[in-house]
Amino acid sequence: MPAVLIALKDLRLRLRDKSAVTLGLIAPLGLAIIFSLIIPDVSAGEFTMELGVVGIEQSDLGGVFESEVIDDLDRSLFAVTEFDTEGNAQKAVDRLDVFAVIVFPPDIDAAVAAGGGEIQVITTNEAPISGEIALSIARQFAGDVSGVQLSVATALFAGGTDVEALAARTVATPLRLEVVDLETGDRQLDISTFFAAGMAVFFLFFTVQFGVSGLIQERTDGTLPRLLAAPIHPASIIAGKGLAAFALGVISMAVLISATSWQIGARWGNPVGVGMLVVAGVASAIGIMAVIATLARTAEQASNIQSVVAVVLGLLGGSFFPVSQGPAILSKLSLATPHAWFLRGLGDLAGGAGPAAAVPSTIALLGFAVATGVVAALRMRSMVRL
Amino acid sequence: MEEAATPLLVCSDIRKTYGDLVAVDDVSFHILPGETYGLLGPNGAGKTTTINIIAGILDADGGEVRVAGQPMNPRATRAKAAVGYVPQDIALYPDLTASENLVFFGRLVGLSGTTLKERTREILELTGLTSRAEDRTATFSGGMKRRLNIGIGLIHSPQLLILDEPTVGVDPQSRNAILESVDAMANNGMAVLYTTHYMEEAERLCDRIGIIDDGKIVAEGTQRELVEKLGGHDKLHIGITGHGQPAVNATAMLDCVIRVSLGDAAMELIVSDARSSLAEIVNTIVETGAEITGIEIEEPNLEAVFLHLTGKALRD
Which CATH entry fits the domain spanning B233-299: 3.30.70.100, 2.60.40.420, 3.40.190.120, 3.30.559.30? Predict the structure, then answer.
């Protein structure tokens, strides 16, 4: 009961100074909405890349590009427009009629035969992602062409003289150019859900810090001696702080899940499974933040260290971008963060799976909570002594 | 006050060390119900550590504290319930109102329902904060915060009230109100343990005083007892007109007079007890034909005792 009294008092203070509302609700919700607006949802069919091409009818290489690349593009993702001149294409990009244009110059065949040549890509700052996709397509195609050139040159250097045969074999060899299918898999979150969950778990660490740093705040404000002199067990004070942090974390997550589902169409998955992940995620965040709080001397110092740790864990854990798309080492390192396990658990639920799918991630999160919670509890015992 | 009464607080040889530093060294004293006990000592003498042990905030390394017959330690909820603790620093939540602060700490000490409501109203009245009850304490003046700080310690009508320098930074008007309140509470049977830097407060409030230095109680007793232990004498300044020498000669013959000297239109006498021998001295002077224009008694005070015992002024 004393722990509940202390927790309720802390919640009232946090609501009154608006810090918890700002960091627990407004910031993550705002960022999730902004991210989901900036980055279109491919899987939801919201994204069509308007790609322009110039000169594919006027050169052999352009013809190869049309047959091997353009014709194979997924028409649900790409709309291709052909322009007769580079100038017209540039105007279309300026008007944002197309987001990027791949240009095959008139002399491209001769240039390639001479061992050089260049494919140009017109991009615009207004559509950076489309520009990157066009550049990737062009680079991949140029790389394949260079590979063919090298193969032919090597064969000729080695004494091969049947250029016609080599050319025939080369033409018959399919280009390795592949456009990555951005369709989400069963274990992958759609982009709205990813950013909603990423921001929620990222800011969760800031939200719970209000609770766990409360003990230092009591000391700074001079109220800790009065709490210690009250007819309650000193452990009630620690329990009260933990309870306040837990309530703040769960309330913040619950509101964010509801708001992002309604506002940006995030699909969190099975409610029971999500509930398990939220409870375990909040517990792990409290454990980690509490350990850090015990290392600090003042509330300000604790807040600074906790912020740094929260940002690093958030980046490493994939709150801002899917770590699976980064280097392999990053994916492995991310498993040292609760963020990655939380997002992985949601991914496991994404295909409509039941709560059982979230069990492995829940166990991992609880592991973080227990390991750090024990350390924090041991260290906090000395904090409730003057 | 009956000496036979059962002490409400008994400290027996309490001891606390921090590494090699002995903060409290076998401190023993007791406080009776209705008694105000002053704990005086220079900074770093061990006052706050002693108070923290008595309030159940700290564990003692040795000895025993009993409050209302219950052993006191940080886990002793029954003993703690008998204590009202007013820390030296303002211990309020600035974003809560005066009422909310009182209700929170009231619930923490086990009050609820009508009792809590009634006590909150009474404390607000006692501290003169009824009209500001619903204002956040962040908006209060220093004196108002101090008064509420004390009020919280009284919310559950404790048997023992511990006041750790409660008037630091308080304006004279608020200080006077606080001292009157403490006096009234002691008169109602509450035992009070009081530490202060202000000697006049100790002299005005405390029935008995313990002087602590280097973690030890170096002297204890009533103010008079402490002064007498030092062999202190009173000083009398008597203004006179006319010839003073006969008066000097006559008073020098009195048993109560230890030394007498004549200054410019005034005599200065060192006596063992000015108040009891004043009439005799005045009569003797008048009989010599001198006319008395004024009398001033200067008694040895706690400040002098304190300085003598600790070698430091109280505010050091």
Answer: 3.30.70.100
